Amino acid sequence: MAEIHLPERAVITLAGDDAEHFLQNLITTDLDRIGPAEAWPGALLTPQGKVMFDFLISRTDTGFAIETHAEDAASLLQRLTLYKLRAKVTIAHEETDGVTIFTGDAPGAAVTDMRFSPAGMTVKRLPGRHGEADPEAYTALRIEAGVPEMHADHAPQDAFPHDLLFDKNGAVSFKKGCFVGQEVVSRMQHRGTARRRLVMVRGGEALPAAGTTVHADGKPAGELGSVAGDAAMAILRIDRVASAENLTAGDVAMTVTPYAWSGITLEASGAEAE
User: Fold this and answer.
1) Which residues pair with 91 in a beta bridge?
2) Would you say 196 and 222 are in contact if contact means Cβ atoms under 8 Å apart?
3) Do 205 and 132 have their domain in common?
4) Would residue 270 count as lying in a domain?
5) Are residues 99 and 232 in the same domain?
6) Does a structural domain hold residue 228?
7) Would the CA dihedral through 77, 115, 154, 50 be positive or negative?
8) Handedness of CA 38, 4, 42, 255 (dihedral sign)
9) How far apart are CA 179 and CA 62, in angstroms?
10) pLDDT per residue rounded down to tens, the chain (274 residues)
11) What is the distance in angstroms between the CA of the first residue and the CA of the last residue of the chain?
């Protein structure tokens, strides 16, 4: 598994004198953190703090490239254009045959997907088709690392950044200042009110399909996201999971393991490790 083509991905480019200022005041990512050949996670939120679009953002010679799900590309471009007003920014949909990821040697133009770095994994990305599609392998890789993606693990405007561990993986900056939805997200951060968190789950046998309700002692605690055999990601109510004696998805008994890099612990209070 050295190269995997992802035909469902699309790229939007932004260029112009105001591109950086425009994005810095709009999206959750702190653009000052983006180094050469790095792709950082980010999101454009609703004013209520829910994730409307998730993506990866990297620097280019002329500005920035945003990689997102192809299903969302037209809507994201339209939303960015709506916010642009008189800013000197050119926003365009780049014609490309999806994106290819590399888990081994990669072309020099590839960028490092920083979402996998907290798990100690190196994954690089490059627009275009440079390998064969293998969605099962990509899903398993994301589950292992704790990398959720919209449509596979959550619906648009259904999750807060904290639900997806965006407060832990660099997708959200609490220091850079204002962005759309910032007040709600900052309040959750400072009050510690996040109750739902992304975790890995394992079943005693193959797990049912994504979207299956997870029950903690009979009470709904969330739903399965991406599934690969007996492993899956799920956004769950940590308080309910922590105090439960029986966790099930369908008829399959499960165990829950928070991602080590997240610092999340299974405590009935939903508290987190410092």
Assistant:
1) 14
2) yes
3) no
4) no
5) no
6) yes
7) negative
8) negative
9) 23
10) 589 999 999 999 999 999 999 999 999 999 999 999 999 999 999 999 999 999 999 999 999 999 999 999 999 999 999 999 999 999 999 999 999 999 999 999 999 999 999 999 999 999 999 999 999 999 999 999 999 999 999 999 999 999 999 999 999 999 998 999 999 999 999 998 889 999 999 999 999 999 999 999 999 999 999 999 999 999 999 999 998 999 999 999 999 999 999 999 987 443 343 3
11) 36
CB 31 within 8 A of CB 88: no
Whether 163 and 219 map to the same domain: the answer is no
As given in the structure block, the two tokens for residue 28 are 């959750």
Q: Could you tell me which of 20, 22, 26 has the C-alpha nearest to residue 178?
A: 26
Claim to verify: residue 177 and residue 249 sit in the same structural domain: no
Q: Check which CATH number belongs to the domain holding 207 and give it.
A: 2.40.30
- Tokens matching residue 165: 């561990």
Identify whether residues 137 and 225 lie together within a single domain.
no
Class of residue 181 by CB neighbours under 10 A (exposed 0-12, middle 13-18, buried 19+): buried
Cα separation, 5 vs 181, in Å, equals 33
pTM: 0.94
Here the tokens at position 130 are 């440079």
Q: How far apart are CA 54 and CA 51, in angstroms?
A: 7
248 burial level (CB within 10 Å; 0-12, 13-18, 19+): buried
Same domain, 156 and 214: no
Q: In this structure, is residue 273 part of a structural domain?
A: no
Tokens for 90? 């050119």
CA dist., res. 39 & res. 99, Å (int): 13
Structural domain including 154 reads 3-188
| Tokens 């002692």, residue located | 217
Q: Give the number of domains in the chain.
A: 2
